[in-house]
Design goal:
The chain is mostly beta strands and 397 residues long. The chain is 4% helix and 50% strand. 41% of the residues are buried.
């Protein structure tokens, strides 16, 4: 069920002031030099980036990053490749489709991290394409959208054990290329992108349990394509990109449980299109990409890390737990904090109706919040401190 919070509250969540650049720190530049539209992925707590292109042409190299140093690995065995779909299952990364030398591809290759080697798989049975996107979920791979001369909105599932593809019900949004997407909380999220002069800001969720798509809250940062999307510490991080006029260096977080976007730290360097990124030890890494237009892009090699993925207030309140007493009709907040802290406590039905709004002073161990008479069911709580949401969850009456 889609959670629809009050519009005034959503507006507040999306527009509160943030720490500009606060958590971003430079790390060693990408080992392969300047690059845009790279192939990138996270595999067993290491980051990988390669292929892509710069002003000397399309590339086949692959590099591994451990958070401190880059190490070159086995080259991608196909032609230089840009804009494929990538997904990771176990110790294997799969790279499907893409573009090189004016050719659209439907080839699929797998990279074995333990063996540092590539293997050719059965070709993707859909149309050859690039500017497509891949996902891994529950041991299966997925591929969606892309461009083959026309923008696409088809959706496919890959079975690793049989090395075979099955076409699923198509993505219900507009056909597009250079979309953004991520897997979070057992769901696939896909949105943004571009088609024939139009950039998008819509955001969709795919539930594999019932094989259905549902539209979620629109991305508030503005329509764009080539934005990077990463999942870490229970949040989606989305930023950068291009809207055919302007490049971006902003970042936003998305809470899949609440269907809420919030502004995050701006990347401290050049605005850029189609950067690389990955997650290592609960830190996000972002870098490379390009600016100066699609026809004559200037590629970048700089990389940045952000480990401050929760605000100061979120870190303080991360250990709060909540329980409900039906006999007393009270919500109990277990804090374990030694100092006095002040919280705003709001409670909503799953339909988004606010049923409680209270200012609470946390005691050292246990604080109670008296509730109005509520019908049995599931309720959502949102705690805020200093004007920022710091804790959310659900409880059942």
């Amino acid at each position: 069920m889609k959670l629809k919070l009050p519009l005034c509250f959503l507006y507040f969540l999306m527009t509160f002031s943030v720490r500009v650049n606060a958590g971003w720190q430079p790390v060693p530049d990408f080992g392969g030099g300047t690059r845009e539209i790279t192939t990138y992925f996270t595999l067993n707590n290491k980051g990988y980036a390669g292929c892509g292109r710069n002003n000397t042409g399309e590339k086949t190299d692959l590099w591994e990053f451990n958070g401190a140093t880059w190490t070159q690995k086995a080259d991608y065995p196909g032609d230089g490749r840009i804009s494929p779909a990538v997904f990771v299952i176990g110790n294997i990364a799969y790279v499907a489709c893409g573009y090189s030398a004016s050719t659209q591809h439907n080839s699929v290759w797998s990279y074995d991290q333990l063996l540092n080697s590539w293997s050719h798989k059965n070709n993707f049975p859909g149309s050859a394409r690039y500017s497509t996107i891949g996902f891994a979920l529950n041991g299966d791979g997925y591929l969606a959208t892309g461009f083959n001369g026309t923008c696409l909105n088809d959706f496919w599932k890959y079975n690793v054990s049989t090395d075979s593809w099955t076409q699923l019900t198509g993505f219900p949004g507009s056909a597009r290329q250079h979309a953004s997407g991520v897997v979070a909380n057992g769901k696939i999220y896909l949105g943004l992108g571009y088609n024939n002069g139009t950039s998008y800001s819509d955001w969709w969720e795919y539930d594999p349990g019932n094989a259905t798509w549902s539209q979620k809250t629109t991305f508030p940062g503005g329509a764009r394509r080539g934005a990077i999307t990463l999942y870490c510490v229970g949040k989606v991080f989305l930023g950068t990109g291009y809207n055919n006029t302007s490049y971006f260096n902003d970042f936003w977080t998305y809470d899949p449980a609440l269907d809420v976007w919030q502004a995050f730290d701006t990347l401290p360097s050049s605005s850029r299109y189609a950067p690389a990124g990955f997650v290592i030890s609960q830190c996000i890494y972002v870098g490379t990409g390009s600016y100066n237009g699609i026809v004559s892009p200037i590629s970048l090699s700089d990389m940045y890390r952000n480990c401050e993925l929760n605000s100061i207030e979120e870190n303080i309140y991360s250990n709060l737990t909540v329980s409900y007493s039906s006999s007393r009709n009270e919500l109990f907040i277990h804090s374990g904090l030694n100092n006095i802290h002040h919280l705003n406590v709001r409670i909503y039905t799953l339909e988004g109706k606010e049923v409680n709004n209270a200012e609470v002073t946390l005691q050292s161990e246990l604080t109670s919040v008296e509730l109005p008479t509520l019908a049995g069911g599931v309720y959502l709580y949102i705690f805020s401190a200093k004007g920022k949401p710091v804790k959310s969850g659900k409880f059942v009456l």
